[in-house]
Amino acid sequence: MDEIVRDFLIESGENLDRLDRELVLLESEPNSSELLASIFRTIHTIKGSCGFLGFANLEKVAHAGESMLSRLREGKISLTADVTSALLATVDVVRRMLSEIQASGQDGGIEYSTLLQTLASLQERVQAAQSEEESDTKDSKQVSEPRGEGPQAKAEEQEHAPLEEAKPDREVPATANPGSEGKDLSQRRPSPGKLGGVLVERGQISAEDLALALAEQEHGDQRRVGEILVGLGLCKQEEILAAQQILEMRGRAAGVETVRVGVTLLDRLMNLVGELVLARNQLLQWASQDAGFHTIAQRMNLIAGELQEEVMKTRMQPIGNVWNKFPRTVRDLALNCGKEVRLEMEGQETELDRTLLEAVKDPLTHLVRNAVDHGIESPEVRTRRGKPACGCVRLRAFHESGQVNIEITDDGAGLDVERIRAKAIERGLISADQSLRMRERELFNLIFQPGFSTAEKVTNVSGRGVGMDVVRTNLEKIGGTVELQSIAGKGTTVRTKIPLTLAIVPALVVRCAGQRFAIPQMSLTELVRLESSDAVETVHGAPVYRLRGTLLPLVWLHEVLHPAEASQQEDRREATESLNIVVLRTGKQQFGLVVDDILDSEEIVVKPLSRHLKNVDVYAGATIMGDGSVALILDVVGLAQRSKLVGEDDGEQKEKSEAVGRVSPKDEQTLLLAEIAGESRVAIPLDDVARLEEFPDSVIEHAGPQEVMQYRGHIIPLVRLSQVLSAASAGTAFQTPSVQVVVYSAHGRTVGLIVDRIVDIVQERIVPESVHPRPGTTGTCVVGRRVTDLLDISAIVTAALDIKEPTIAETQVS
Amino acid sequence: MDATQQFCTFFLEGNLFGVPVSEVQEVIQLQQITPVPLAMSVEGMINLRGQIVVAIDLRQRLHLKTRGSENVPLNVVVRTGEGPVSLLVDEIGDVMEVEAASFEEPPETMPPSVRGIVLGVHKLEGRLLHVLDTEQACRVQTAAET
Questions:
Q1: Residue B144 and residue B136 in contact, taking contact as beta carbons nearer than 8 Å
Q2: Domain span at residue A611?
C-alpha cells in the first residue's frame, strides 16, 4: 500500500479515537468552544486528507459530519443526544471506511446514505425551528451555504471540493491564533509557520506576490491568503494544498519528538534482547574462572540488564489506549438502558506490555458494561435512595509491587449476598450447609463461576451468565487475578491484578525423567518436601497428601508426560523415598505436582511453541536455558486438565470448598520479609521482632571478634544474616553508609540482625515442611511469589553467638 | 516448469531423497535435541542460534526403521510457511541439478501413508531421487495421545 495512504490510516485511526472521546465529553460541556473547535479540526483534517488522496465517499461522509459541526459551532443548532449520536455514527462509518481502505484500498462498499439522511434531517429539523439565520455575517454564510441542503447538494458540491480544501487555511490558524489576520500585514517577512511563507520557501510564489495578497487582505478582502493567491492567478490550487500539508506536518512535528516504529520491529528487538539475556547467562557461567574476564562479564551483565529494561519500556503502552473507548461505550450503553452514568478515569498513564494491553481489553470492556448495566440503578431508583441521579463508574489503574492494578468501581446497587447465596444453591454450586459457612467475600466471588448470573432479566448487554467466568479465565490466562468487593446499596468494586509483562518471567526449574522443565512462578504457591512417601494416602486410588489438614491431590509429572510407562509408575512411587511436591494453583484448583528434583529459580525468556506443538496442552512455551539447551515451560492449567483435576472431580471440589470455610486465622502468621546477600529473601516471624531500626554504619563497634552496638543503654551483639546463611558471601561485609537492623528480643536476650533491606510485612500461611533446609532455616516457602527462606531465629542467634543455653526452637533444625 | 531443478539431497536407509534447494535454509549437525514428551510425531526441539525449532524425524515420517543410536542424524532446516523446521536425516548428499524430463509420478503401489509427502521420483543414472513435498513433510499430526 501507498506510504501516504498508510500514514493517513494510522493517523486517522488515532484521530477517530479522539473524536469518540471528545464528542462524549462535549455532551457534558456543550458550551466548550475549545472542544468543539478541536473536534471540528480533527474531522476537517480527515476530510482534507481523503480529498487529497481521492477517497470521494469518505470525503462525503466526513463533509456531512463537518457541516453538522459547523452548525453547532455557529450556534445554529444545539447539541442534543440525537445530534451526538448522529455524530458518533458518522465516526463509526468513517472508521468502517478506513478499515475498508486498509483491506481493499477502496472506500466504496460501505452504506452511508442513511447516515447522510439522518444528518440532513437533523439539521433541517433544527433549522426549521430557528429561522433567523439570514442576519448572519458574510463569512459564516459562506461556510454554511452549500452545506445545509441535505444530501442532494453533496454531489454538486463535490465539484467544488478543491476550493473547499482551501479552507483549512481559514480554520486552522484562526482557531489556533485568533485575531492573527491583521498581524499578517505588519509582519511582511514570510513566516515559515504560515501558508504564504511555505509557498515562498518552495519558490512557488515570490515574496512580492505574497505581499500583494496580503495587501489585498488589508484592503478589506475577507478571503484567506491562499484564496486570494489563486484568485489572482499567482499560484495553483495544488500548490496551496501541498503547502497546507507541509504546514500541518510542521505543526505536528513541533509537538513531541517521537518516531513511529513498527510493532514488528519492537517485537524483534525484544526477541534479540531475550537472546542477549540468554547469552549473558551463558557468559556468566564461564566468567568465574578469570578475574579480568569476570569484570567484563559483570559490566556486560549490567548493560544487558539495563537494555532489557529499556526495550521492555518501548513495548509499554498506557492503559489509557484501551480506556479511550470506554467513554463512548458507557454513553451508548447508558442511553440504551435509560440511565445517567458518568465515567471517571484515574491513572490512564499507567503502562503495561502491549500484548497484555490487548488481552485485558475484552475483560475490562465487559466489566465496564456490567457496571453500567447491572451496577448503576435507573435515575428514579437512585433519587429514591437519596443518591445523585447520575451514577458514576470509576476506573483506576496503578502500579503496585511489580503488577498493574486496575479497579472498576461503581456507586450502584451493589451485590445482593442473599440472592447470590440462593442462586448458587439453586445452581448446585454450593450446598445450603456450605453457604452458611462462607464469608461474604467468598460468596461474592462465586459470580466468577461458570454459569452464574444474577441478572433478573437477560439484556442484550449482559446477563447471560457467561461473562464473569470468561473475564476471570481471560485474566488468569495472562497470569492475572480478579476479585470483587461489594457493599449493598453503595456499589461494587472489581479489582484486577495483571503482571507487567509476559515476555520474561520468573520460573522454577524442575527435573523429571532426566529432563528440565520450567514452571512459571505465578502459579506456584509453595514447595513441599516429604521425607517419606508414607504420608501419601489414596482416595479410591487417587493419591492425596494432607497439607495442613486439607487434602491436596497429587499428580506425578512423570506419569502425565510418559503415560506409556504407566505400568512401571506404581513401582516408582513405591520406590522413591522422598517426594518433591510443587504446589500449584490454577484459580479453581490447587494440586501438588510431584517432580524428581527441584533445581533452581530463574528468569526465563518465554518463546511461543511452533504450530506442531500447539495441541499438546501441557506446555505453555519453551525457553533456552543458560547452557543453551531448550527446556519446555509447563502449562499449569493444561496439566490440571490432563490430570482430570478440573471439572470432573466433584468430590475434590466439595472437599475444597469445605476447606475454605475451615481456614482459621491461626494458620496465618505475620512475617517480616527482608533481603540478604543481594537477591535472596528471608522471612522472620514478626512475633519475635522487637523493633526495626536504621543506623549509620559507624554505630558498629567491636567487642573481641563480635560486632556489637550500643542500643538503649545496653550493648547488643550484631549478627549479619548474610554471613550466617550463605557461606558464599561470608566476609564480604557490605559497605553501605547505613545498616538495617532487625532487633530481636526473646528469652531475655536482645540481638541485632543485620539485613540488606526490609521488604515488607505480610500475613501468610506458611509451610512447616522444608525443601532443602539450610542451617538456620526451618524451611522454604513461597511468599508473594518469591521463594523465601523461613528463618529459625533462635537457632541463628544461638549458633552465631555460641550460646550454650537451650532454646525452644533448636530442635527444629535438622 | 524450468528445464532443470536443483535439489538438496540426503539419505534415509540408503535411499536418496531431495527437497528443492530454494526451500532449504541450512544443514547443520546438532548434538542436543530436547525431547517433547506427549508429542509423538515430533522428535524434539533444537536451539538454532536462539531460535527454537521443531525437529521432525523423516525416518518416522516416512515409516522407515528407527535410526540406531550410533547413527547421529543431521538437521536439514527447511523454510515453511510457519517458520523453519528441522528435518532429521541419516546423511547429507550433494546439491544435484536434474532435468525436469526425468521426473515421474510415484507408482500406484507406493504405500498410501507416504503418498502426498513423496511427490515423485527423478530417474537418475543408476538410482532414483525421491522428491519430497517440504510443507507436507513438516505437516505432522500433533494431536497429543491421551
A1: no
A2: 505-662
Burial level of A340, CB count in 10 A (0-12/13-18/19+)?
middle
In a domain, A527, yes or no: yes
Residues A568 and A657 in one domain: yes
Query: Is position B33 within any domain?
Result: yes
Q: What's the whole-number mean pLDDT along residues A742-754?
A: 77
- Rounded Cα–Cα distance for residues A544 and A591 (Å): 9
C-alpha distance from B56 to closest chain A C-alpha (Å):
10
Q: pLDDT tens-digit profile of A761-787?
A: 776 666 545 555 666 777 777 776 677
Q: How many domains does chain B have?
A: 1
Domain that holds residue B29: 4-138
Residue of A630, A632, A634, A648 to mutate, testing the B interface (most B Cβ within 10 Å of its Cβ)? A630
| Same domain membership, residue A789 and residue A728 | yes
Residue of chain B minimizing CA distance to A633? B36
Are the Cβ atoms of B47 and A632 closer than 8 angstroms? Answer: no
Which of B32, B48, B52 would you mutate first to test chain A, the one with the most A CBs within 10 A? B52
Report the side by side order of strands in the sheet with B83-89: B24-28, B74-80, B83-89, B51-57, B44-48
CB contact under 8 A, A612 and B53: no
Under an 8 A CB cutoff, do B36 and A624 touch? no
Let me know whether A487 and A564 are in one domain. Answer: no
CATH of the domain at B61: 2.40.50.180
User: Which residue of B47, B53, B78, B138 is the best one to mutate when testing the A interface, meaning the one whose CB has the most A CBs within 10 A?
Assistant: B47
Using an 8 Å CB-CB cutoff, list chain B residues near A279: 50
For residue B146, being part of any structural domain is answered with no
Asked, for residue A612, whether it belongs to a domain, the answer is yes
DSSP string covering A118-143, please?
HHHHHHHHHHHH---GGG--HHHHHH
Sequence-separated (6 or more) residues with CB below 8 Å from residue A6: none
CATH of the domain at A34: 1.20.120.160
Determine, for residues A614 and B142 on separate chains, whether the beta-carbon distance falls below 8 Å. yes
Average pLDDT over residues A564-573: 64
Report yes or no: A553 and A645 within 8 Å, Cβ to Cβ: yes
**Mean pLDDT of all residues in A323-333:** 87
Measured CA to CA, the distance from residue A766 to residue A369 in angstroms comes to 39
- The verdict on residue A213 lying in a domain is no
Residues of A in contact with B78 (CB under 8 A): none
Interface check for A610 against chain B (CB to CB < 8 A): the answer is yes
- What is the C-alpha to C-alpha distance for residues B93 and B134, in angstroms, rounded to an integer? 17
Contact A630, A518 (CB under 8 A): no
Query: Does any CB of chain B come closer than 8 Å to the CB of residue A563?
Result: yes
Interface of A with B in 680-709 (CB under 8 A): none
- Give pLDDT tens digits for A29-43: 777 778 888 888 888
Domain count, chain A: 5
Same domain for A703 and A633, yes or no, is no
The pLDDT value given to residue A360: 87
Higher pLDDT, B10 or A427: B10
Task: Report which of A687, A714, A709 is spatially closest to residue A699, judged by C-alpha positions.
Answer: A709
Residue A695 has pLDDT above 60, yes or no: yes
- How does the average pLDDT of chain A come out, rounded? 73
CB contact under 8 A, B38 and A629: no
The order of strands in the sheet holding A542-547 is: A524-530, A579-585, A590-595, A550-556, A542-547, A536-539
Comparing A230 with B60, the larger pLDDT belongs to: B60
The per-residue pLDDT of chain B, averaged, comes to 85
Q: Does any domain span residue B143?
A: no
pLDDT tens, A140-184? 444 443 443 444 444 444 444 444 443 444 333 333 344 434 344
In a domain, A227, yes or no: no
- The answer to whether the CB atoms of B85 and A612 lie below 8 A apart is yes
- The yes-or-no verdict on residue A518 having pLDDT over 90 is yes
| CATH number of the domain to which A587 belongs | 2.30.30.40
A548 and A578, same domain (yes or no): yes
**Catalytic (active-site) positions of A:** 44, 66, 370
